[in-house]
Amino acid sequence: MKYWLLKTEPNTWSWEDHVKEGSSIWDGVRNYQARNNLKNMKKNDLCFFYHSVTEKAIVGIVKVVKEHYLDPTDKTKKFVAVDVKIFSKFKNSVSLDQIKKHKMLENMSLIKQSRLSVMPVTKKEWNIIINMSK
User: Fold this and answer.
1) Measured between alpha carbons, how far is 81 from 93 in angstroms, rounded to an integer?
2) Residues with Cβ within 8 Å of residue 107, at least 6 apart in sequence
3) Which end of the chain is more exposed for a tag (fewer CB within 10 A), N or C?
4) Span 33-58, mean pLDDT?
5) Model confidence band, residue 37 (pLDDT cutoffs 50, 70, 90)
6) Average per-residue pLDDT in the chain?
């Protein structure tokens, strides 16, 4: 199993929106590196659900339920989507500030490539953030 982080603007698609849907397409990615990350996702991989822009915090976890396929919102047919479903909500969200302050997370993609919307997370990073959310 691999671990990922998916960013979304909460005023566009929030955790609450996803809870209402249960399972939903993760589409609209228009960056080649992020697209390649979507292509590398496998069924049952887990993803942090990150509210960007205003909140800047990881609020929960979603699970990949359908591997990549052509993004129906992309007329160029160059980009892909995956389907993810709610896995668990964090008891306490983990803010970007908290992540930046943690010495063992200083090389995390969220910090190093802050504009990337879909990124890998190492098992070590995953476990640290899970513990921070408790």
Assistant:
1) 26
2) none
3) C
4) 97
5) very high
6) 97
pLDDT, position 123? 98
User: In this structure, what token pair is assigned to residue 104?
Assistant: 């063992």
Global confidence as pTM: 0.96
Nearest to 35 by CA among 58, 6, 57: 6
Domain span holding position 10: 3-132
Which of 129, 120, 89, 122 shows the shortest CA–CA distance to 6?
A: 120
Query: What CATH number is attached to the domain comprising 42?
Result: 3.10.590.10
Q: Read off the pLDDT of each residue in 17-24 and give the average, rounded to a whole number.
A: 95
CA–CA dist 102, 32 (Å, integer): 29
Residues ≥6 apart with Cβ < 8 Å to 100: 106, 111
The per-residue DSSP string of 29-98 comes to: ---HHHHHHHHH--TT-EEEEEETTTT-EEEEEEEEEEEEEE-TT-TTS--EEEEEEEEEEEEEEEEHHH
- How many domains are contained in the chain? 1
AA identity, residue 71: D
Q: From 39, 37, 40, 43, select the one nearest 6 (Cα to Cα).
A: 37
Q: Which amino acid is at 99?
A: I
